[in-house]
Amino acid sequence: MAPTDGSKAVAKSTKTREVHYMLLCEVALGKSSNLTAAAAWGEKPLLHDGTDSVKALANHTPDPNGVLVSPKCGAQLHVGRVKRVGSELPFERVWAKTDPSPQPSGRYERNPNFAANTQAYLDKLVSDKSFVVGNTHSVTDNDRALFIHYLYAQSTVTIEMMSRESPEASAGSTDGEEDGAGFATDHGAVGAWCEATVKVTIQPENSPSHSYFAKLYRNVLTRSPLAKDYTLAEPSLLEYAELVVYKEAQARLRYVVEVETVSR
After folding, report:
1. Element (H, E) at 67
2. What's the confidence (pLDDT) of residue 175?
3. Pick the CATH number of 16-85+239-263 from 3.90.228.10, 3.40.50.620, 1.25.40.10, 3.30.1330.10
4. Backbone phi, then psi, for 27, in 5-degree steps?
5. Labelling 231: which of 25, 83, 92, 219 has CA 20 to 30 A away?
6. Three-class DSSP labels, 204-231
7. Residue spans in the chain of domains classed CATH 3.90.228.10
8. CA–CA gap between residue 189 and residue 83 (Å, rounded)
């Protein structure tokens, strides 16, 4: 309604002020185990023996270039822009494999099991530094089901270590069809390298054996050119990254942050 004295009407607004408090804790992760989406739906998805925390691997994670590091204790605060792993940020570690050769006649044999638990089995084998180039490992009992879809009890599975690399050795190789990381030359994936190459041989009971090769790549993108005949086995990841600890002694309160919001 216009005022009767001829002056202009002045609109009045009410501001609402709210104060919130956020607790920032410093957390000691200790030895952490990785968790994929496939493992999250398993029977025992959380804490493993000998580990202190769980790191949920995700499709989206903060850019590590934006991390803030405390000069007092080395604690990290991730404030980088959230990016998609594989396309904007490299996979920290990911397997790639070839097709079996010679090609088996059966449909399931042509596509051997290479799920997350299969890759975890190979991860553990590669992490054993005593498993050196030229060594072979026989997969026993029910673990053969990690590699074979059916009739695994009647088959044998052996794994041979073909090569091991370091980031320094991979970066220094430029000759030949492939570089030291198992990439085609001129791959342009700076920082990408191959930690190990293994050969998996499956011997069915009543048919010829067949083998495939698998490489454990580090720091690669989905668009990174791989060695000839290798296909990236992209991991099944959760939506967002998360770190979980279980003991109160692993966390301590460091800051209380006051956040004030004003709405009209």
Report:
1. strand 67-69
2. 38
3. 3.90.228.10
4. -120, 130
5. 83
6. CCCCCCEEEEEEEEEEECCCCCCCCCCE
7. 16-85+239-263
8. 18
Q: What is the reported pLDDT for 174?
A: 42
Q: In what order do the strands lie in the sheet with 32-35?
A: 32-35, 53-56, 242-245
Give ∠ CA 213-216-221 in degrees, rounded to 5. Answer: 115
Predicted pLDDT of residue 10: 57
pLDDT given for residue 23 in this prediction: 86
Assigned token pair, 22: 């956020």
Radius of gyration of the chain, Cα coordinates, nearest whole angstrom: 26
Q: In what order do the strands lie in the sheet with 136-139?
A: 136-139, 156-164, 193-203, 210-220, 91-97, 231-233
Residues of the chain with pLDDT under 50: 173-190
* The 238-240 sheet, strands edge to edge: 82-84, 58-62, 238-240
